[in-house]
Amino acid sequence: MLPSPISTPENIHPSLWRASQLARGIGETVDSGYAALSAELPGAGWPRGALTEILIEHQGTAELRLLQPALASLRQGHIIFLQAPFQPQIGGMAELGLNTAQLLWIRTHKPVDALWAAEHILRSGSCSALLYWQSQMKNEALRRLHLAAQSGRTLFCMIRPLAFAQTPSPAPLRLSLKTTRDGLQIDFIKRRGHQRDSPLHISLPVPLCMIKQSTPTPLSATVSTVKLDETNASIENNSAQLLASAAFAATRHRISATELVKG
C-alpha cells in the first residue's frame, strides 16, 4: 500500500504554516491599500484584534501616510488618535481621505491614564481603529494591550520610536518606517512567517497637507470637547455626552485631565 500524501500545514490547522510561508488563518485583516505591502503582511492586511507596532524615526505624518488607505476604508466606528504628538488638522485629515466625523483625539497628561484608556477602549470594542503614540512602554504593559486587543476586532497600532526596534515585544507584527525622497521605506522587524531582510519601498506623491499653510485649522476648532476628571465630566455641549458614553464610557471616572475631541 502506498503511503498517504503528507498533509499541508494549513490542512492540519489554519494557524500552521511552513517556515517559508507567511502565516495564514490569523483572523480578520484590513487591506493596507498598497498591493506590495499587503503581499508581505500575514493575512494580506493589517490585523484586527492584535497589537501592531510601527517604529518611526521622527513623529510626524509618515505613519498616517502609511495607514491612510486602511483608515479611510473604515466606514463605521470611531478612529481614535491617542497621545498624538501634534494636534490633528481638519484639512489634512480630510485630504488624506479620512472622515473627520469618525475621528476622536484623546490627550492625557499622565502616561498611566493613556494606557488605562487604551486598554478599556480595546476591551469595549467601541471603535474601529486606535492609533496610540507612546515613547515609553514596559513589556508588561504591551502584553496587557495585546491581550485587550484580542478581545475585539479593533485595528490597533502603537507608534513608537525606532530606538525600540531591538527590544522584545509581544506584538506579532512590528515594522520600522522611514521617509524617503519619493515615499516610504518599510523594514519588517517581526512577522508571523519567514523573515524579509530587504526593505520594502512604497512610492507616494507628496500630499498637499504636507505643504505648510499659513492658517491651518486644528481639529479642535470646530468640534466638541469633553474634559474628564476622576469624579465627573464637564460637558460643553449636548453631543459630547453621547460621544463620551459611546466611545469612552469605561474610562469616564478614571482619567484625569483628559481632552476628548470629535470631528
Low-confidence stretches: 19-23, 208-263
Order of helices and strands: HEHEEHEHEHEHEEEEEEHE
Structural class: alpha/beta
Question: Strands of the largest sheet, in order across it?
Answer: 10-9-8-3-7-6-4-5-13-11-12
Largest sheet: 11 strands, mixed
Coarse shape? globular
For the CA atoms, what is the radius of gyration? 20 Å
Query: Care to count the β-strands?
Result: 13
Q: Mean pLDDT score, rounded?
A: 75
Helix content: 10-25%
Q: What percent of residues are in strands?
A: 25-35%
* Discrete helix count: 7
Report, as a whole number of angstroms, the end-to-end distance. Answer: 69 Å
Features:
eleven-stranded mixed sheet; alpha/beta; 7 helices; disordered C terminus; globular; single chain; 263 residues; two-stranded antiparallel sheet
Structure description:
The chain is α/β, with parallel strands linked by helices. Helix content is 24%, strand content 25%. The protein is built from 7 helices and 13 strands. The protein has helices spanning 9-12, 35-38, 62-72, 90-95, 111-124, 139-150, 238-248; strands at residues 29-30, 46-47, 50-56, 78-82, 103-107, 127-133, 155-161, 173-180, 183-190, 200-203, 225-228, 233-235, 258-262. The strands form 2 sheets. It has an 11-stranded mixed β-sheet with strand order 10-9-8-3-7-6-4-5-13-11-12, with helices on both faces. Strands 1-2 form a two-stranded antiparallel sheet. β4 (78-82), α4 and β5 (103-107) form a beta-alpha-beta unit. Mean pLDDT is 75; it is low at 19-23 and 208-263.
